[in-house]
Description:
Distance between the termini: 22 Å
Domain Gfo/Idh/MocA-like oxidoreductase N-terminal: 55-182
CATH superfamily of the largest domain: Dihydrodipicolinate Reductase, domain 2
Strand order of the largest sheet: 13-12-11-7-10-9-8-14-15
CATH class of the largest domain: Alpha Beta
Largest sheet: 9 strands, mixed
Protein name: Gfo/Idh/MocA family oxidoreductase
Shape: globular
Radius of gyration: 22 Å
Structural class: alpha/beta
Domain Gfo/Idh/MocA-like oxidoreductase bacterial type C-terminal: 225-282
Number of domains: 2
Organism: Sphingomonas alpina
Pfam families: GFO_IDH_MocA, GFO_IDH_MocA_C2
Strand content: 15-25%
Order of helices and strands: HEHEHHEHEHEHEHEHHHEEEEEEHHHEE
CATH topology of the largest domain: Dihydrodipicolinate Reductase, domain 2
CATH architecture of the largest domain: 2-Layer Sandwich
Amino acid sequence: xxxxxxGPEPGPTVSGxxxxxxxxxxxxxxxxxxxxxxxxxxxxxxxxAPSDRVNLAVIGxxxxxxxxxxxxxxQNIVAAADPDFDHVAKSFIDRQGATIPQRAPLRAAYDxxxxxxxxRRMFDKQRDLDAxxxxxxxxxxxxxxxxxxxxxxxxxxxxxxxYTVGEGRLLGExxxxxxxxxxxxxxxxxxxxDGRRVVEIVxxxxxxxxREVHAWTNRPxxxxxxxxxxxxxxxxxxxxxxxxxxxxxxxGYNPDYTHFNWRGWxxxxxxxxxxxxxxxxxFPLWALSPGLPTRIESRHSIWGGDTDLWDGRxxxxxxxxxxxxxxxxxxxxxxxxxxxxxxxDGGLMPPTPxxxxxxxxxxxxxxxxxxGDKGMLMHETYGEKPVLxxxxxxxRAAAVPQTLLRVAGGRDGHEMNWIAAIRGxxxxxxxxAEAVPLNETMLxxxxxxxxxxxxxxxxxxxxxxxxxxxxxxxxxxxxxxxTL
Length: 484
């Protein structure tokens, strides 16, 4: 199946996110606007009235797609696209084969919906759509989202927004040129109450000037750092050609590639950084508004599939991503001076900060640590459970006023926030205008990994300025029939 993976009183939504690429000219933001000209793009559908139910389609109907759509069963789910509906059916049953009660409404909605193996056929035939939720493997995101946006459909795209930097910029420009389209990236922590309070506290100066940030995750939790497995016979229910979609490789089917496992394989996913960066890097980039990174370097374990002694360079044919790594970001153009952000994955973590309160531990699943000149702040993956560290920090934080509106339902309201914005009831939480720079930052870590050496980046031009050969990793090739 395409879609398997992956406080204060609530009030109306607000984006609250500063544009991380502030000051970037429109021409430069595109890295050459002419290359992304889309002369036939639809102007965008009307916003639905508050009383309307939105006509929805889902692309990638099981796994994370099912989890998203569970929150949208009050809408009209009129179509679903997935290359393996036998696998989608597993999203609704427990180990004994009984329907999970909470998922019965979605199962009924899917039973009523028109089904397609190939979302391209859905876009050709389904004329009653208002909006599309995309929860495919990463390599399909941009292709599906662009097709939807060109047809004037609102889009919700799971994180990472795209597989490449260039794709992200393309979707960002489509959104800019079609302001009636409501766009949302599926980084649900952005709608959480705790995360928004973290942003307020950091911006409010409670921990002073922040020049150093550490973010970590226990991912990968899927096959990674391993050799490519042998091909097997595919399940009869799986349309393997559709699953491959725009990928230019055909290694043959293996269950290590499909459903939740695709994240660790280079042709299909973007590894641990792409999987969790949209959650963990979101808050420091939101709070500090440092712009795009100017220097990126990755240190990591061996690439999956290497057979020779490793000299630090990626192998000629990339299989799975390294099992663990550390990525260093420098934001040399950050207001008030440079900021350094260090990312750890594969279970690696920064040292325990001094002064951590008794009984508080760094969560090995993931977290973020901000080091300021007047104290520190630490929180878990989705901005949750913030901990203040240092003398006087708690008192200063308590005095910081609420400046960001809260999303109704917090993290759990991220999908319905999209619907509310389509209806004109609330501002959107994580639109592409703000998601694209976040997406670009985390993908630049993957680019540095693939380059095998530090890279310097010009965010205005969207180009690597020293290791020029690495610019090829900002884009990718597409299989015939699946081009952007």
